[in-house]
Amino acid sequence: MSRMRIAITGSTGLIGTALVRALRTDGNDVVRLVRRPPRAEDEVEWDPARQYVDTAGLIGCEAVVHLAGAGVGEHRWTEAYKKEIRDSRVLGTATIASAVASLDTPPRVLVCGTAIGYYGDTGDRAVDESAPAGSGFLPSVCVDWEAAAAPAEAAGIRVAFARTGLVVAHEGGAWGRLFPIFKAGLGGRLGNGRQFWSFIALHDEVEAIRHIIETPALSGPVNLTAPVPLTNREVTEAMGRVLHRPTLFTVPPFALRIALGEFAADVLGSQRVLPKKLVDSGFGFTYPSIDASIRAATR
After folding, report:
1. Nearest-CA neighbor of 249 among 196, 294, 185?
2. What whole-number distance in Å separates Cα of residue 162 and Cα of residue 45?
3. Where are the domains of the chain?
4. Distance CA 298, CA 170 (A)
5. Cβ(30)–Cβ(8) under 8 Å?
6. With contact defined as beta carbons under 8 Å apart, do 17 and 229 qualify?
7. Which residues sit opposite 197 in a β-bridge?
8. Widest CA span in the chain
9. Would you say 3 and 28 are in contact if contact means Cβ atoms under 8 Å apart?
10. Measured on CA atoms in the order 54, 60, 66, 68, is the torsion positive or negative?
11. Reported pTM
12. Mean pLDDT: which of 26-35, 76-85, 247-256, 260-269 is highest?
């Protein structure tokens, strides 16, 4: 990857932290957008609630990666939190898209981190980027989320939507919660375990975003998932196998609904998502299997 100036929102999140580290290791100039007055030379202020960006800090950026958004699994889905989930994504994306579109020399590419939640529950049916949106809260959020990037597209900027699956990482995200449970020998399948989980190793997630930045042919939706989705039962068995722990427990659906509320439907839902555009563009996965992804996360 040639060295460039790249702006990133959500730089302190799981993916953002790893992306910033990888880009800087290779000598890139990384600008971090923060929602407070800047305290470091690499920081630029933005405020999605006010739809404000200090665009002077974006001058010279060849790429912008937008990863900010309220965590889907951080709280129970009250009506207030569902509004926060939607607003943080839609208003944030609209703010960034309008800001880059206003520049005299806009970046060549805007990568918006979205989610495979776009497809809803696909059951046993495998889907790629050509599939339509599903039904329900998360698919509707994803549709509005991606539509909010329209100002950047209208300005002629290449826009790619990195529809990310479940990121296998020890540091955070859904998998960050699973590791302590499985290491304690308390892990097990969720519900009947037949629902598909479309995962991706954190390393491959970061490399895929970098691949999108430097591949002009990639625009629109791009699924960031490993090549072969597995069922929750298969993932559970792999966690036990790699961590050398028993996986005897089963979390029944009613318990998940009590613990998670409306979000339980998405945990128990099935998403069999294929990364067709990534594979067709020549991207090579370093950790294509679940065992390799889990081992990478425990190093």
Report:
1. 185
2. 24
3. 5-297
4. 6
5. yes
6. no
7. 230
8. 59
9. yes
10. negative
11. 0.95
12. 26-35
Task: List 45's β-bridge partners, or say none.
Answer: 34
N residues, the chain: 299
The CATH number of the domain covering residues in 5-297: 3.40.50.720
Of residues 41, 85, 84, 91, the one with CA closest to residue 66 = 91
What is the distance, to the nearest Å, from the Cα of residue 92 to the centroid of all Cα atoms in its chain? 15
pLDDT digits (tens, 9 = 90+) for 117-141: 999 999 999 999 999 999 999 999 9
pLDDT tens digits, one per residue of 208-262: 999 999 999 999 999 999 999 999 999 999 999 999 999 988 987 766 666 556 6
Structure tokens at 185: 């020998």
- 99 to 12, 122, 157, 171, 197: CA distances (angstroms): 21, 35, 12, 31, 35
Instruction: Quote the tokens at residue 148.
Output: 């909010």
Contact 127, 116 (CB under 8 A): no
Number of H-type helices and E-type strands within the chain: 11, 16
Residues 6+ apart with CB under 8 A from 280: none
Residue 259 identity (one-letter amino acid): A
Neighbours of 86 (CB within 10 A): 18
Q: What percent of the chain has pLDDT over 90?
A: 81
Residue 244 one-letter amino acid: H
* Amino acid, res. 273: V
32, 44, 53, 66, 103 from 37: Cα distances, Å: 12, 8, 11, 19, 21
| Interatomic CA distance for residues 151 and 99, integer angstroms | 9
